[in-house]
From TrEMBL:
SUPFAM superfamilies: Composite domain of metallo-dependent hydrolases, Metallo-dependent hydrolases. Coiled coil: none annotated. One of its GO terms (biological process) is organic phosphonate catabolic process. GO terms for molecular function: hydrolase activity, acting on carbon-nitrogen (but not peptide) bonds. It comes from Cognatiyoonia sediminum. InterPro entries: Metal-dep_hydrolase_composite, Metal_Hydrolase, Metallo-dep_Hydrolase, PhnM. This is Alpha-D-ribose 1-methylphosphonate 5-triphosphate diphosphatase.
Length: 398
């Protein structure tokens, strides 16, 4: 069987911001295979030394027994979209939105993010239309990064919407220089995958788009027609475009074993939010890493009625956790899994090493010599972990 991370065979390092030196001592270091009482030294943005013991040398920060772990790596978050459109049909200025998004993620311990942007728009129909925005937003994000305006490391995640009209044109506007790390195959056609239950879709669009019953029925009919017309060509085209861009390919909302077999044939490296136990099990058999949402895990179930993340975790079918739509849930989920598995290093890997590896990033996600100096200081309380400090390449960002 292939490794769950075999599709991610490249390394991308783009950050050129300022780096700093840092010395954290008297900490519980969460290493890949153990928790070690000791200290970690970061010089010029890179981890240069890890030593054992509770001694606090002069010039070091006394962590007073708090945990020190790698910065969190987020592969799929809708948070940037929430900032640019804080309410339905409200377009917020993009640069302030991006800076606020970046600061929010830093404040939750996320030091690397793949910002999800939809590509594939719908211009037909009276309601449920989606406009093109990804290319313009990506340009603004990349420009802000080049100017050093961000606290943390940003990559692009293009959510390729199969059920759309303009997917191929929008993907063609991106190049290998655009920092696209992930392309995910999204098919939100009503009646399958995430929206097998049309009640869940009706609730979602009624709240977001204000549709009545007649408008909802027309919307569903339009989406079904689009999928019939473009579905197969868009899926094949998006797979080809992911290769052109040098991006890792991800599937989304796989529901059946047959869909997972197709994902594997397409070269998918990890599966975002499989909706059934059957699909997650098939992912394991196909060597595809399974990612689930932290809100699902913390809330005890899916808000859409899909398989519970905890059920998959108990069955050893969970590799990666994503904050999805609640950035602060990522850190919380790691400590939740640590209790469930009685294994803190394994739990922390689901939000650090495993997502980094799945996305092809070999320079972060572990406390190890030569890794990026992206680290967190976390205090465990009786109710929740508390972030006491976050550093990106040794520079404090929270």
């Amino acid at each position: 069987m292939n490794s769950p991370f075999s599709a991610a065979s490249f390394t991308k390092t783009y950050d050129n911001g300022a780096t700093s030196d840092l010395w954290l001592a008297n900490a519980q270091l969460i290493l890949p295979d153990q928790v070690l009482k000791g200290s970690v030294t970061i010089e010029q943005g890179v981890i240069t030394e890890i030593s054992e013991g509770d001694h606090v040398p002069e010039g070091a920060t006394d962590c007073q027994g708090d945990f020190v772990l790698p910065g969190l790596v987020e592969l799929h978050t809708d948070n940037v979209e929430r900032h640019i459109e804080p309410r339905p049909e409200v377009d917020w200025p993009h640069l302030p939105a991006l800076i606020a998004h970046d600061a929010e993620l830093a404040s939750t311990g996320i030091t690397t993010v793949f910002d999800a942007m939809r590509v594939g728009s719908i211009h037909s129909g009276k309601k449920g239309r989606y406009v093109d925005y990804a290319r313009k937003l990506a340009d603004e994000l990349l420009a802000a990064r080049a100017e050093g305006l961000f606290k943390i490391s940003h990559f692009l995640h293009l959510r390729a919407e199969i059920c759309s009209e303009t997917l191929m044109d929008e993907l063609a506007a991106f190049s290998a220089d655009d920092r696209v790390g992930i392309v995910s195959l999204m098919d939100h056609t009503p009646g399958q995958r995430q929206f097998r239950d049309l009640t869940a879709l009706r609730t979602y669009v009624a709240k977001k788009r204000g549709m009545n019953e007649a408008e909802f029925a027309e919307h569903v009919e339009n989406l079904l027609a689009l999928q019939k017309k473009f579905g197969a060509a868009h899926e094949a085209g998006a797979v080809k475009e992911a290769r052109r861009l040098g991006a890792v390919l991800a599937s989304h909302d796989d529901t059946t074993a047959e869909q997972v077999v197709t994902s594997s044939a397409n070269g998918v490296g990890f599966a975002e939010f499989p909706t059934t136990f059957e699909a997650a099990k098939a992912c394991r058999e196909q060597g595809i890493a399974v990612m689930m949402g932290a809100p699902n895990l913390i809330r005890g179930g899916s808000h859409s009625g899909n398989v519970a993340a905890e059920e998959l975790a108990k069955a050893d079918l969970l590799d990666i956790v994503s904050s999805d739509y609640v950035p602060s849930a990522l850190l919380l989920s790691a400590f939740y899994l640590a209790e469930l598995w009685s294994d803190l290093p394994r739990a922390v890997a689901t939000v650090t090493c495993n997502p980094a590896t799945a996305a092809g990033l070999r320079d972060r996600g572990r406390l190890d010599i030569g890794q990026r100096g992206d680290v967190l200081r976390v205090r465990k309380t009786s109710k929740a972990p508390v972030l006491c400090g976050a550093w990106s390449q040794g520079k404090q960002v929270a």
